[in-house]
Amino acid sequence: MASQRTLARIDALAWTLIYGGLFLLVLGIASHDETRIGGWSLSVIGALAAVAGVVLIIVRSRLPQAPDSKP
């Protein structure tokens, strides 16, 4: 069972990867005209980060939640 703190960290990491990855993807697409290799690199890294964030959300949804010990 995962603690509340662990689940919160996974949530924060997942959304950071998704938003950061999408930002890098758009930045890579916008910079394709200036530098092709740099633009493609940013696009690929951004897409991979966004996919990793989605995978973390799926993993998070399958983790059992620890019951609260406080009454």
UniProtKB/TrEMBL annotation:
This is Uncharacterized protein. The keyword Membrane applies. The chain crosses the membrane at residues 12-31, 37-59. Keywords: Membrane, Transmembrane, Transmembrane helix. It comes from Ramlibacter cellulosilyticus.
